[in-house]
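Case study 2.
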Amino acid sequence: MANEARPCPCDIGHRIEYGGLGHEVQVEHIKAYLTKSPVDAGKAVIVIQDIFGWQLPNTRYMADMIAGNGYTTVVPDFFVGQEPWHPSGDWSTFPEWLKTRDARRIDKEVDAVLKYLKQRCHAKKIGVVGFCWGGVAVHHVMMKYPEFRAGVSIYGVIKDSEDVYSLKNPTLFIFAENDAVIPLEQVSLLTQKLKENCKVEYQIKTFSGQTHGFVHRKREDCSPEDKPYIDEARRSLLEWLNKYV
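Prediction:
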């Protein structure tokens, strides 16, 4: 998360202390964190990690929040055993690190998790939510997999090419106004291109005064002025899933 004190592109922000309500499972060749919904409604959501990996407590907290709203939720290790980015890592090496963790080359893992949710969890309706790196992954899967009834891409870097606008199903994009990673010009271009080319429902929400990571990597009690935006973004996420999944 970028912030005023240390404006690096993707500072971890506030790593919360959180044990989790779910448990770890093996899904074919990958590990995953699974939380069952209190109500079995045949609905599931795949939560895709940021660069700090599938074990980040913040991401598990978000997964449990989604599960509490009626969805069996799974956070797979989309890095497939490779090390996540470390908060104290040398950012000059980040581009090289990222080359071996392409958010658009996750189909093998997505296929395995979809199979698991359908066969083991009896999911009939499935959505997907992703943060940062995972936001890019959501954008990818929503163009490729029609079985995802809804997607929520949260501050995913936008690839500027013609192949990112043909969404298969309703997709919500959440951005931060003061994101050091994603300039507002890119958000404006995405808005324009979706308006011209997209055939399904979509929404783009940009939150005033917020920085990269605010939805899941800012503590809810960090500052009174931030809390309404964090709450609204999380509420928007859940409302989108509730409407379309």
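Helices lie at 57-67, 94-99, 107-119, 133-144, 184-197, 214-217, 227-244.
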